[in-house]
């Protein structure tokens, strides 16, 4: 019995989609935010891709976008040298933090009291959102543009990745670099599992997994073309990766065997993430679209309906969301 994957296509952006992130599940469901070079980050219903609103205020490409755990605040980083905090319910700008170069990454702490940003200045800034007028704490020591900055170990440490092919761990209390993890190519995507146990890193042609307690590499796969992003399913049974070849590649986590390949985008895939309930994953591409894909093809979920015809099964969904 043949099974076909039909993704939901979320239109609205006019230039490449370079970053996306899901919120955790809230009392109102979960949400998806996307960053795009058109300078207009968008908020959508996570389960369906339905457009909720656009955060309008940046004057340059938006490289990063995140939601806090309750999906009530959004953070964005832009080529206009600012990071902004938004009221995700009203859609209004709350704070704008000036930088001296392009802001490439933003991340809330778990309690949303702090914001970490990384920029082409080769610096990480830590803003206190309870005192937004205060000067940020600055972490020096990077030797290239920061691509990733995130809070780990219950917000006691900061994890950073830059274009110098290194991942660094910083103690937030002492502000000292605690560990350096060298890679064979710069990390373009870093994800830490919801239970804080496994780090998934896309670098060059490879996807590598690290133990977050020891920071030792667990396993790695290498692909024939560059892979820009990867996400591990919450069950740790599979992971998805996307990159330069326009495809979404799904692998068995234990065996590292490729089990699914899906084509839908018309350009390189810059970002991919599983939803917090694990039922779907989202991808963002050079083609200017966000697409939602089912984890279990044929299962009724969101806008997908299961149909059977002539002995074959397929998952059908509207082409636009």
Automatic annotation (TrEMBL):
PROSITE patterns: WD_REPEATS_1 (PS00678), WD_REPEATS_2 (PS50082), WD_REPEATS_REGION (PS50294)
A GO molecular-function annotation: RNA binding
GO biological process, one term: spliceosomal snRNP assembly
InterPro entries xref list: WD40/YVTN_repeat-like_dom_sf, WD40_PAC1, WD40_repeat_CS, WD40_repeat_dom_sf, WD40_rpt
GO CC terms: SMN complex
CDD domains in the record: WD40
Pfam families reported for this sequence: WD40
Residue ranges of WD repeats: 55-96, 96-137, 139-180, 262-303
Keyword terms, alphabetized: mRNA processing, mRNA splicing, Repeat, WD repeat
Family per record: Belongs to the WD repeat STRAP family.
Protein name: Serine-threonine kinase receptor-associated protein
């Amino acid at each position: 019995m043949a099974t076909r994957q039909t993704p939901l296509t979320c239109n609205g952006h006019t230039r490449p989609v370079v970053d996306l992130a899901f919120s955790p599940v809230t009392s109102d469901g979960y949400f998806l935010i996307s960053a795009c070079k058109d300078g207009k980050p968008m908020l959508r219903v996570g389960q369906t891709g339905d457009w909720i609103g656009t955060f309008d205020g940046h004057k340059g490409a938006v490289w990063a976008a995140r939601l806090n755990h309750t999906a009530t605040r959004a953070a964005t980083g832009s080529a206009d040298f600012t990071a902004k905090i938004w009221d995700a319910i009203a859609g209004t700008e709350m704070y704008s933090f000036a930088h001296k170069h392009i802001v490439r990454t933003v991340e809330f702490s778990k309690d949303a009291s702090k914001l970490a940003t990384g920029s082409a200045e080769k610096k990480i800034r830590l803003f206190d959102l309870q005192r937004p007028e205060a000067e940020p704490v600055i972490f020096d020591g990077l030797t290239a543009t920061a691509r990733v900055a995130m809070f780990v170990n219950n917000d006691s440490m900061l994890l950073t990745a830059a274009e110098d092919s290194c991942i660094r761990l910083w103690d937030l209390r002492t502000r000292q670099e605690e560990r350096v993890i060298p890679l064979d190519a710069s990390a373009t995507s870093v994800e830490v599992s919801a239970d804080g146990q496994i780090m998934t890193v896309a670098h060059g042609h490879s996807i590598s997994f690290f133990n977050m307690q020891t920071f030792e590499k667990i396993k790695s796969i290498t692909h024939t073309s560059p892979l820009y992003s990867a996400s591990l399913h919450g069950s740790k049974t599979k992971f998805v990766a996307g990159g330069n070849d326009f495809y979404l590649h799904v692998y068995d986590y234990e065996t590292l065997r490729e089990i699914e390949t899906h084509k839908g985008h018309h350009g390189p895939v810059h970002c991919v993430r599983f939803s917090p309930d694990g039922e779907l994953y989202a991808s963002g591409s050079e083609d200017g679209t966000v697409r939602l894909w089912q984890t279990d093809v044929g299962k009724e979920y969101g806008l997908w309906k299961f149909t059977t015809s002539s002995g074959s099964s397929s998952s059908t969904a509207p082409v636009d969301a």
